[in-house]
Amino acid sequence: MLRLQAEGLRVLRSGREVLAKVSFSVASGEVYGLLGGNGAGKSTTLATFLGFLPPAEGRVCVNGREVGSDVPAARRAVAYLPEAASLYEHLDARENLRYFLQLAGAPCSDAAIDAALDRVWLDPEARSRRLGGYSKGMRQKVAIALAILRATDILLLDEPTSGLDPAAIDEFHALVRGLADAGKTILMVTHDVYGACQVADRIGLLRGGRLVAEFAAPPGGRIDTETVHRAFSARGAA
Ligand SMILES: Nc1ncnc2c1ncn2[C@@H]1O[C@H](COP(=O)(O)OP(=O)(O)O)[C@@H](O)[C@H]1O
Ligand SMILES: [Mg+2]
Questions:
Q1: Does a structural domain hold residue 35?
Q2: CB of 43 shorter than 6 A to ligand 1
Q3: What residues make up the domain containing 205?
Q4: Is the dihedral of CA 81, 79, 208, 10 positive or negative?
């Protein structure tokens, strides 16, 4: 089933075209990596799926329904991990999750919260410590646990691995892969070619607001990093 679709999407910000003719779709169980440099329009694309920016042309659909026709339904259907996840520094991991789940109108039991923290491999000893003392990787784990606990089928991740060390990135990708293999739909925005190739079933390359190339993993294999890197760093097409 196609969970996310962009069709001929054109988006203006402050009167300027920042997305043009963008079309792609993401099916259940798939990780789609939206790859692009700074200002390519990656976060804007996520914002349109969340109904924050109405398309000037074309359309975006969540679960087959046009976002603009029912924005609250689209937002209920997706868990969104923003570029800078804002969790509370003075609360511990469990308190943060309890608070944000309540805010989302989806309270969870302590057992469910701990199960989610197990799933993201957050050190049990750290769970009752304030986030103020956490590494970036640990914070991302709490944020992804929150996304998991929202129990949505679709996850939108905005540069979730930026600022993480290589070991934390590998762990994060294994986690994302596991979620997709369990049937979740994941749209992950990134500028990391290697990471995108490591985890994505398909990659869309966004440049200057246009989707200039798409790559798909061969059956049982991964997308070739060198091929994507060459396309990403190609000059003259910006
Ligand atoms: N709030 C905003 N108002 C006007 N223009 C914006 C705003 N946010 C981003 N833009 C512009 O939209 C374009 C795409 O930005 P963005 O989607 O944030 O790119 P990315 O996430 O790929 O770095 C950029 O040219 C950026 O300057
Ligand atoms: Mg961005």
A1: yes
A2: yes
A3: 2-86+154-232
A4: negative
